Amino acid sequence: MRKRTLVGAALLVAIGVVFGALLVMSFNGVGTSFGFSGEKVKLGGSAPISRGDINLMATQEAFIEVSKAVTPTVVSVMVTSTPKTRMPDIPFFHDFQFKLPEPQPEKGMGSGVIVTSDGYILTNNHVVDGADKNGIKVKLFDKREFSAKLVGTDPTTDVAVIKIDAKNLPVAALGNSDSVEVGQWVLAIGNPLGLTSTVTAGIVSAQGRDIDVSADKWGIRNFIQTDAAINPGNSGGALVNIRGEVIGINSAIATRTGYYQGYGFAIPIDLVKKTAEDLISFGRIRRPMLGVQLSPAIDETSARALGLPKPEGVLVQDVIAGSPAESAGIKAGDVILAVNGKDVNAANEIQMLIAEHKPGDVVTLKIFRDGKTISKNVTLTELSQENLASTNQGSDQGNKQPDENGQTNVAKLGITVQQLDQDTKKQANIDSGVLVASVSPNGPAADRTLLQNDIITEIDHQKVRSPKDLLEALKDKKQGDAVMLRVLTKQGGSYISRFVAVGIGE
After folding, report:
1. Can you tell me the distance from the alpha carbon of 381 to that of 286, in angstroms, rounded to the nearest whole number?
2. Residue 202 and residue 245: Cα distance in Å, rounded?
3. pLDDT of 183-200, one tens digit each?
């Protein structure tokens, strides 16, 4: 039995050796029953389209050429900032000694655009804001790194200029943002999410977007909107047209997550150029001042109240005393239809057109007043640094509840009013008007931002001295009509004047 077992085992080993040899031969390209022939195999087939559409191919070539030309002019901006902390002043802890941990430096990253061969670079104010001394570094497309000096910043436009000590740098071509049109191709070039030299494509999806990137009341909010992907790190980078010209500096995104969700915003390059030139040449912003407070866009109700044939232009809510507008004869209640021949329909459009000028420039305003169209030439002055640095104070409508006695129901507007007391007149620096005691939540005034404790001083440019004056002015008004109210609203410690158009019976 033992001998038979040994013979059987030997036979199995022999069979295994033969099979293994055949298997090795097959994997070494030796033809076997597995079908390996040793011939070179061609994978894939011919292109389904032998010659692409000539227009599509031209667009693709343009994208490639623009990317090659502009990418070397876009840099990475690395910022180090150290948060400032201090011990809170809590009396209970006065007798205890605490050693707070040292704040740790934080690092951020953005983009910049080279605009001179000797190292001036455009970026965003929010990219370099709070940077430590010697805390700004720049990395070029060719991998060289430099320390950068902060030349100047402008929070009102979110523009900053930095400078590196270098020569013969590639310089971006700056285009004309006034010629930008919705629908045109654009590329966004920058360093999103730490991914350097990234190019994304899209179109200009809107212009003149009023988004609030600054708490500054003088902030200029007029952005180019694009669907080219923009993410954190793109800030300060270039938005370029199909010719490779920079038409905007990427600044913000519309997002609920903090990342790209379809829309990004760029500061128009015409405004950036003006701001950067001031910072480089003067070390400060020489902001031209018109001197008016403007309403949002005029809607159908406002147009009816003003006597405009259609909703257009921007309503002047108030004129600043001693301003160029006052000197030129601009009045509260005027409607600005155009600036230097360019139609305007939003406050930020006027803001942008004025900001592109210099102090001393003369602008021509087309005005609608009392049913007529007139022209006014305004010589712009420089906005003072005190005004430029000031910010809006928080709205304070006051908690004083009006007395129930003496209130008059103004049903056509959906409000109740009462006579002003002497203290309120003194605070508001007026001699007449009526106080809005309450606003019906379902009435026409509620939809038009008329507020409790507002003061109505005029209706259709006629003074209101008492509730009776208000009712008399509304006597012949019927449903579908509209009236224009001059209103004082308390903001901070003072009152601001504004116009409120209210429809009757809406």
Report:
1. 9
2. 15
3. 999 999 999 988 889 999
Phi and psi at 152, nearest 5°, equal 180, 160
Helices (H) and strands (E) in the chain, counts: 10, 28
Each residue's pLDDT tens digit, 439-490: 887 788 887 888 888 999 999 988 998 888 899 899 888 888 889 999 999 8
Q: DSSP assignment, residue 395?
A: B
| 181 membership: H or E segment, kind and range | none
pLDDT exceeds 80 at position 220 = no
Tokens of 284: 């400060």
Distance CA 313, CA 316 (A): 10
Nearest 10 degrees: Cα torsion 188, 276, 290, 384: 140
pLDDT at 224 over 60: yes
pTM, two decimal places: 0.66
Pairing of strands 245-254, 173-174: parallel
Q: What are the residues whose beta carbons fall under 8 Å from the beta carbon of 203, sequence distance 6 or more?
A: 182, 183, 184, 185, 186, 226, 227, 228
Return the ∠ at Cα 287 (arms to 282 and 288), rounded to 5°.
125
Determine contact, residues 457/358, Cβ cutoff 8 Å: no
Of residues 252 and 242, more confidently modeled: 242
Pairing of strands 74-81, 106-114: antiparallel
Catalytic center residues: 126, 158, 235
Compute the CA torsion angle 118, 124, 130, 133 (nearest 10 deg): -10
